[in-house]
Amino acid sequence: MTSQAVAMDPTNERTERYRNAERVVWSHYGLEPTEGFVEFESPAVRLRIQEVGSGEPIVFAHGGLRPAVALAPLVRELAGYRCILLDRPGCGLSSPVDWRKHQLRTVAPKLMGGVVDALGLERTHVIGHSIGGVWALRLAQDHASRVGKIGILGASPVLADMPRPGFFRILASPIGALITRLPQNQDRARSMLRQDGHGPSLDAGRIPDVFFDWHVALIRNTKTMNNERAMIRDAVIRRGAWRPGLTFDPAELAAIQQPLLYLIGSADPEGTVDYAKQVVAALPNAELNVLPNAGHMLWLDDAVLVGNAIRTFLDDSSSAEPSPTKQAGASTARSPGRGPER
Predict the structure, then answer these.
(1) Per-residue pLDDT for 324 more than 50?
(2) Is the pLDDT confidence value at 78 over 70?
(3) Model's pTM, two decimal places?
(4) What is the mean pLDDT of residues 140-155?
(5) Cα dihedral angle (175, 180, 186, 189), rounded to 10 degrees?
(6) Which residue(s) pair with 34 in the sheet?
(7) CA separation for the pair 301, 281 (Å, rounded)
(8) Which residues contact 101 (CB under 8 A, 6 or more apart)?
(9) Angle CA 37–38–43, to nearest 5
(10) Could you tell me the residue range of the domain that residue 29 belongs to?
(11) The domain that contains 76 carries what CATH number?
(12) Is 133 part of any domain?
């Protein structure tokens, strides 16, 4: 594998429309990321990287259909860290991988490790949301000496018995081809978030309009939806089950020694709290924080709470020892330097 950091991507009209919508989201949260690309020879792919802040590095791997800027509310709460956010292959402004020729089991750690190398990082924390949690864990598995602590946000297909999300099943089916052609608008974008467990935050106006403007621009001006469908069909799901090599067996999880924080919302429709407890029980050095009433993208419901939980975990030198399951509550969410309590 060869990875190389390169300059900013040339633009075209669609790309610029997408960039403009993305800039508005970053600006809404008071952030101005820098941008670069990392090129790989095998698989042949060009990954877009955005960076915010300075300090200890954290590499983020996003979930389905939600490239890096979707994490902006959380990044704002992590001042003092160097947040490195990649657009997974085929998402946002990263080029796609031909998943008919490659397996996610090998591609994920190869690309994540290549990003770490290209940026000259000796060691980094890593946080993954949803399927991005698989990318984070594969990096820790194959490049253990390069990973400090691990965070998983939301239900993630770590274990083979996690139910396949309904949207994944539909997108992988022939109907998925029709879905990729549907015109995108704010109402449809809001409906997707409501299905992901964020109804209360939508009703309370906690998610700004600029987020939905960005998502509409993403679907209209990039091939993210088509590329995610190809990944799901060719690398994630086969005949209604997770493809071999996507999820982890018990021995693989037992070998991951890094401290790990699993944050999940109690209203996450993609996976239950009991499922998250199974994941944590399979890892030797993991703890679980449950955020009441939060959906799949739990930082959209309370970025301060999620940011405080992550900061406390990363700053805590004692987290090298296993910790019990914790239940995060609103009463502890905004206390500086204080983590969620049971």
Answers:
(1) no
(2) yes
(3) 0.90
(4) 98
(5) 60
(6) 51
(7) 26
(8) 43
(9) 130
(10) 3-333
(11) 3.40.50.1820
(12) yes
Q: In Å, how far from its chain's centre is CA 268?
A: 15
Of the pLDDT bands very low, low, confident and very high (cuts 50, 70, 90), residue 322 is very low
Q: Is residue 339 part of a domain?
A: no
Scored b (16 or more CB within 10 A) or e, 48-68 reads bbbbbbeebbbbbbbbbbbbb
Split into its structural domains, the chain has a count of 1
Structure tokens at 51: 């960076």
Structure confidence by residue, pLDDT tens digits, 16-64: 999 999 999 999 999 999 999 999 999 999 999 999 999 999 999 999 9
- The pLDDT assigned to 238 comes to 86
**Residues near 195 by Cβ (< 8 Å), separated by ≥ 6?**
167, 269
Three-class SS of residue 114? helix
Query: What does the pLDDT read at residue 340?
Result: 30
In contact, 236 and 246? CB cutoff 8 Å: yes
H and E: helices and strands count for the chain: 14, 12
Q: Does a structural domain hold residue 338?
A: no
Residue 232: inside a domain, yes or no? yes
Q: Which DSSP string corresponds to 124-146?
A: EEEEEETTHHHHHHHHHHHSGGG
Where do runs of H (alpha helix) occur along 153-268? 166-172, 174-179, 186-193, 199-203, 209-221, 224-231, 250-254
